[in-house]
Amino acid sequence: ELAGDIWAARKYYPQAYAAYQKAREISGRGSGSEILDRKAEYAAERSEQVERMKRTASMEMDALFRDAEKQMRSGDLSGAAKTYEAVIEKDYRRFEAYYPLGCIFLRKGKKEQADYLAELLLDFDADRGRARLLKVMVLEASGKTEDALFYYNAAARECPQNAEILYQKKRLTAVLDGDE
What we know:
By secondary structure, the protein is mainly α. The model has no long low-confidence stretch (mean pLDDT 87). It starts with a helix and ends with a helix. 28% of the residues are buried. The chain contains nine helices and no strands.
């Protein structure tokens, strides 16, 4: 029962419910069983509420991503940027919003903001291939092509199947070799 109380206090309701169930099994039917039943029922209700909230939040995030992609396709970069920023504001761990936002910043000439997002992705160790690709684009936009090649090589090692990375690496290598 104590384990259930601890889990419930931490708002880990599925674990609290399981602990209360286990306590019921161990203690059997006795004077405290009604309290255990109420605690287990409460934990079960809260578990369902938490799951509904998670599903709703996930659906809202999915809708925001669809909106941002639609805005990108229609050329509304400012709207897409605001939508991606809203995603990050709601949950900074939605790393899939950082790369397209960084690309938007680059297209608008905001290299510092794009570089900041690339560094965040690298620091969080999230989506390293795209993080390096964003870093490369920032370096190239800043005229640092040799540094960019270093990141292309690293990105190619991270994502050897990514055609965009391999194409861009080959293109930059040709530029540096004077073939383009």
